[in-house]
Each structure stands twice: as structure tokens, then as C-alpha cells.
Design a protein that fits this description.
The chain has helices at residues 14-26, 37-46, 63-69, 88-96, 109-154, and strands at residues 6-10, 30-34, 51-55, 78-83, 101-104. It is of the alpha/beta class. Helix 1 links the parallel strand 1 and strand 2 (30-34). It is elongated, with a radius of gyration of 21 Å. The N and C termini lie far apart (54 Å).
């Protein structure tokens, strides 16, 4: 990753925010907590986050609604819904609104860390793929312009 990955932890339960923040910081991540959706949106507008852990039930909005409101960053922020109220309906709603993963409380921290690593790896792959596509486009465009220049010089009007 080079720089430390930045993670936004959005949960109204202070103890959950503290535990996740402490463990993630010990793993080398830069962590920023938010206690509700409004605070998460505000923070995401001023800072880049690689990943957000979002509780499905927040005091001011549903976590699935926050998924659609939270500012996308480039490369796209990875979003993981966390819930103590698992249901098929919640899982489908989260995925349909842009969640990249869905995790259950109480946490198996090894699984949480594994999921975060996997999502950050996917983000890196997407970034690399985008960079390769931009490079390919530029190289192709340069070739097209060079061919056009050659044609113009061979056939001046």
C-alpha cells in the first residue's frame, strides 16, 4: 500500500468504535471514528478513506442509506456493512446499495481483519487496472496522432 490505509469506522456504539479503532490502529491502519451517518458524510467530504466499516443501524439513518450518501473517492472507497441484526433482507439491501462486504456482530476479529485486507487488495487491483487502461489509452492516442501527422506531411493540401 505504501501509505497507511485510512479506515472510517461508523457506529453509534462508542465501545465498538473504540475496540475497532484500537485493533485497526495496532494493525497499522489510520482510523477515524464517526458516531452517526451525518458525521461520516462530513468526514468523507474532507478526507480520503480507503475503506469504511458502517453499522447498519445508526441513530440518524440506516447504514444502507449512508452507503448511497457517502462521498465516493477515487479509487472508490470500499464499504463494509456491520450488523448485529443479520437478515437476508439486510444483506441483499446492503449489497444492492453498494456494500462490498457484510459482517456480523459480535466480531470474529481475525475474519474482520481478513475481510479488510481482501477489500484493500481489491481496491489496489482496481487502481492498477485503471492506471493501465489510462496508459493504454494515452499510448493509443499518441500513435493515432503520430499517424495523422505523418499523413498530413505526406499529403499537404
Amino acid at each position: 500500500m505504501g501509505k497507511r490505509a485510512r479506515i472510517l469506522v461508523v457506529d453509534d456504539d462508542e465501545s465498538v468504535r473504540k475496540v475497532l479503532s484500537t485493533i485497526l490502529e495496532e494493525e497499522g491502519y489510520a482510523v477515524d471514528p464517526a458516531k452517526n451517518g451525518k458525521e461520516a458524510i462530513k468526514k468523507s467530504k474532507v478526507k480520503f478513506y480507503n475503506l469504511a466499516l458502517i453499522d447498519i443501524r445508526l441513530p440518524d439513518m440506516e447504514g444502507t442509506k449512508l452507503l448511497t450518501k457517502i462521498k465516493d473517492t477515487t479509487p472508490k472507497m470500499r464499504k463494509i456493512i456491520i450488523t448485529g441484526y443479520p437478515s437476508l433482507q439486510n444483506a441483499i439491501g446492503a449489497v444492492n446499495r453498494g456494500a462490498d462486504a457484510y459482517m456480523l456482530k459480535p466480531f470474529d476479529m481475525e475474519k474482520v481483519l481478513e475481510t479488510i485486507r481482501e477489500q484493500l487488495r481489491k481496491q489496489q487491483e482496481e487502481r492498477k487496472y485503471c492506471q493501465e487502461k489510462v496508459t493504454e489509452f494515452i499510448e493509443t492516442r499518441v500513435e493515432e496522432l503520430q499517424e495523422k501527422k505523418t499523413v498530413i506531411h505526406k499529403n499537404p493540401r
